[in-house]
User: What shape does this take?
Amino acid sequence: MPTDLDDIFGSLGRQADGIPLGSAGQARARGHRRNRNGALVAAAAAVCLVLAGVGVTIRPDHRDDHPVTPAPSAGPLPLVGSPIEFGRTVPESGPAVAAGRVYTSWPAADGSVTAVGADLHTGRVDWRVTGMRSWDAPAVSHGVRAVEQGVMVAVDDQLYVYDPAGQDPNDWVMTVGDLDEVVPLEKALVRRWAVNGQVDAHDWRTGRKLWTLQPSADPAVRVLGVRTPGQDPADESFADDRVLVVTKTGKVQVRDAGSGDLLRTITPKSPAQAGSMFVGYDGWLYEGGPSCCDTSAYRVMAIDLGTGESSVIVTEGVGHALGGLDVCGPGRVCVLDQLDNALTSVSAIDVAKRQKVWTVIGPVGGGSISSAGETMLIGGGQTTVLLGADGESLFQSNATFVDWLDRERLLVMPISGAGTVEMIDIATRKLVPLGTVPQLSDMCVHTADRLACPTGNDLRIYSLSG
Amino acid sequence: MRAADEFDEFYRDTSRRLARYAYGLTGDPGDAQDLVQEAYARAWQRWRRLADYEDREAWLRLVVTRLSADRWRRLGVRRARAAAEPPPPHAPPPSEDTVLLIRAMRTLPVAHRRALALHYLLDRSVAEIAHETGSSLGTVKSWLSRGRAGLAAALGDSHPTFVTNGADDAH
Assistant: This one.
C-alpha cells in the first residue's frame, strides 16, 4: 500500500515534539560551564586503517570465559597534599596533566580567570597565573590544555601560552576563532585559520612566527601531527618532526615542523577530507571518513608518509558508520564499525596484507576505540569492553569512564560520579579497589599513579599507588 | 532587553524546531535532547556575536549536524553532562511508524538525512536547503530523491511504495 512520506514524517515530527527539553536557563548554565578549550586545541587523535575483508570470521565474544574477580570495599582514596580551593563553586574546571603537574583554571565572579599548576607527587601549587580577563563575565568560557612544551589557557577567544617552567616574561597570547585548529607539536605550536586556511607555526616560548603558509587557491583544511611509537600515550603533543597539511582538494603536504619546508606533496588515491578521522602514527597517516559516492558509507586510507604511496584499505557499505580507528599493534589497525547506530563490530586488519585478521561483535552503542599495544578498549556505549590481541574479550564494565593507567592496568571510575575507584590488572583480571572519591563535578585526569578530580569547589589529587 | 531575556525568548521560539531536526538526524530522543541543549549552550557562549548573524537557527542546525556526526565529541558532551547535570526526563516511546522510519533513516548517508529532515520536518524548500548547505539545487534534489529511494529500500515490505506530494519544487 502506498505510504505518503509527509504522513510518516509527520508522525516522526509529532514524536519529536513530545521530547522533553531542558529550559533556556539550563542551556545558559551549560554555556557558562562550557570549557571551550577542547575546541581550540586539536585532539591528539586516534585513527587507523581498514582493509577489504577477506576470510572474515564473526565470533561471539566470550565474556564469561574471563570472569573478573570482584573487588572488596575500600576506604577513601589517599589525598596528595591539600585540595586546591577555587574560592567559589565552579561546575566545570577541566583539569589537564603534563610533565608531572596537574593544571586547572577557574573564573572569579568578575570573569577574571586564574590558572594553577600543582606538582602531582607533592600536591603543592608551584605555578600560578591570575587576571586573565574575559569580556563575557559571568559567562566566561575557559579551559586549560598542557603539554611538556607549554600550558595553554583559553579564556573566551584568547589563548594564553605560558612556559610551564616558570614566570617567563615572554609569555604570549593569540586570538583563536571557534573553528580554528591549534595543534601542539614538539617543535612549534601550529595554528590554522579557519577563515582562509592560513597556517602559522609559533615558537612555544616567544610566540614568534617560525613559518607561515599563506592562503592559497588550495587552502589548508586540516593540520595534523604525527605520533611516534615511543611517545607516552598521555602526551598530547606530537613528537614526529613532520607536520601534515590537508588541502581543500584532498592533497596531503608533508612539511618539516620546525621550518615549514615542503618535504612531499601526496595526492592520495582517494582525496583526503577535512571531516575525516585522522591518525598519524609511526610514519603513516590513516584516514577514515566518507567515501566519494553514496554507494559506500566510508572508506579508510593508508598513506605512507615516507614514500607517498596510498591505498584504500577498507570500504564499508551503506548503513555502516565508522565508530573509531586505532593502530593496534605492529602493522595492524583496528576498526570499530557501527551498524544501525547500535550494533557494532571490531575488526583487526593486517595492513600489509590488507586482510581482516578477525572480527568480533562489539558492545552495543560502542563509539570509541583506544589501543595500548595490541589490546583495545571499546567504549562509548553502556558497556566498556577490553579486547585482547586476538579479539577475545578480557574484561567488561558498565562504568562510563574506563581508561588506561598503563599497558597492564585499567582505571575504572565510579558510574555515578561518586564511589569507588578501581584498578584492573589485565593479566590476572583482578579488580582492585583503590579507594572512594566524593561527588565529582567534571572529568578527572590521571597519570599511572595519580588521579586529579574536581569536586566543584576544589581540585583534589589522589594517590593511586597507596 | 537583557541578553538573557533575549536568549530565552529565542530559545522558546526555536527549540522545538531544533529538536525536530535533531531527532530526524539522530533518531534518538536522548541524543536529540542533548544535542539541542548543547547547541543552545554554545549559542549562549557567543550570544553577542550571534546577534549579527542573519539566520541564527541555521547556525544552531549546523552545530547539531556537526555534533551528531562527531561521535567522539558527543561522547565528551555526554560525559561532561553526566557529571554536572541531572539526567533529562525520558521521552515517550515512539510509534511503530516512527520506529520504522528511524531505522530506515539510519541507513542513509548524513547528507540525505539532513536534506530529508530539513524538507519534511522543517518544511524547507529545495532552494532554502541549498542555501543552508551551500549546495546546488540539483545536488539537493538528488539528495532528496536518493534519500527517498533509500528509505523505500530500507523499509522494504513494510512500506513498499512511497507517494510524495510533489512538494520538492513547489516551495
In short: Chain B touches chain A through 79 residues (CB under 8 Å). The radius of gyration of chain B is 17 Å.
